[in-house]
Amino acid sequence: PDEDDWKKLKRLLQYLRGTIDDKLILGCKDVGKMKSFVDAAFAVHHDMKSHTGGGISWGIGVLLSMCQKQKLNAKSSTEAEVIGVSDFMSNMIWARMFLERQGYSIDENLLYQDNQSAIRIEVNGSKSCSKRSRHINMRYFFINDRLGSENIKVIYCPTEYMVADFFTKPLQGKLFHYLKAIIMGHEPLETLTSHFDTTNQERVEENTKAVSYEVIPCVESSLQDSRNEGRQNADNKNVRFDDDVEERTDVHDGNKYSYADAVKEVKEHHS
Questions:
Q1: Signed CA dihedral, 214, 219, 221, 223: sign only
Q2: Contact 85, 143 (CB under 8 A)
Q3: pLDDT at 70 over 90
Q4: Residues 165 and 171 sit within 8 Å (Cβ to Cβ)
Q5: Are 202 and 213 in contact (CB under 8 A)?
Q6: Cβ atoms 99, 105 nearer than 8 A
Q7: What is the pLDDT of residue 122?
Q8: In whole angstroms, what is the distance from residue 101 CA to residue 161 CA?
Q9: Distances 73 to 78, 81, 82, 146 between C-alpha atoms, Å
Q10: What is the pLDDT of residue 200?
């Protein structure tokens, strides 16, 4: 261990102290609308294997989540994304079957991804494979069949709003707190997916069956500070991070951080 390791440990303990009273809130806006987020971090492990992250939500908080290392090496980020969906698809199928056993039906089954090349391969199958993606194992093309049999709609979600990034990358600062608020249920998922740009769609015709994906524009609604009890506790304890940390996530130089600030900065970035 060196001085950098000590700083990382200190920062972790400061974060745990400031969020010790945070609560996980799980709820359901509509049991018939299941929304899944899947993402992959390409070649992030020491053996160059990728990492899969995903979550399923019914409107408030993320009920089912995945954060695991992929079992084989991918040659591209697109392949890693396809493998990630393949790994996570069983959770989506299980959740649908479980709800049906309880007497509920899934009317809207949505899958959000931030890699458009992976979306095309999943929707079109081998038809969208180029010379750089023909090597992808055919067993992953069962995704194409499941999209039809499970009536799953694939939707493009910009990376800035990809909830699954929380499970695949070491996020910091405002984006970390922004996605944490959604996952912990402090803010409803609709603050992220309430507005859709339906003018930008791609439809794929195959066997008289059309599959489409849509694009999520910038988030319109702001997040409210009052719902974050843990953040208020951190402010009261004057939790501070080291001065040499580039992105602060708590109080620094007398300035209080809020979720509204996070959304404002994200919106300004896209304006």
A1: positive
A2: yes
A3: yes
A4: yes
A5: yes
A6: yes
A7: 85
A8: 32
A9: 12, 12, 12, 24
A10: 36
Using the predicted structure, report yes or no on whether residue 175 has a pLDDT greater than 90. no
Q: In Å, how far are 85, 193, 246, 250 from 216, measured between CA atoms?
A: 19, 7, 30, 29
**Number of CB atoms found within 10 A of residue 92's CB:** 23
**Total residues belonging to the chain:** 271
What pLDDT sits at residue 39?
A: 95
What is the C-alpha end-to-end distance of the chain, expressed in Å?
43
Task: State the SS3 of the chain.
Answer: CCHHHHHHHHHHHHHHHHCCCCCCCCEECCCCEEEEEEEEECCCCCCCCCEEEEEEECEECCCEEEEEECCCCCCCHHHHHHHHHHHHHHHHHHHHHHHHHCCCCCCEEEEEECCHHHHHHHHHHHHHCCCCCCCCCHHHHHHHHHHHHCCEEEEECCHHHCHHHHHCCCCCHHHHHHHHHHHCCCCCCHHHHCCCEEEEEEEEEECCEEEEEEECCCCCCCCCHHHCHHHHHHHHCCCCCCCCCCCCCCCECCECCCHHHHHHHHHHHHC
Convert the pLDDT of each residue in 19-28 to its tens digit: 999 999 999 9
Is the predicted pLDDT of residue 264 greater than 70, yes or no? no
The upper half-sphere exposure of residue 249, i.e. CA atoms within 13 Å in the direction of its Cβ, equals 18
Radius of gyration of the chain measured on its C-alpha atoms:
20
Q: What is the mean pLDDT of residues 51-61?
A: 95
- Residue 105: what residue type? S
CA within 13 Å, CB half, 170: 5
Taking the C-alpha atoms of residue 156 and residue 160, their distance in angstroms, rounded to an integer, is 12
Task: Return mean pLDDT, the chain.
Answer: 76
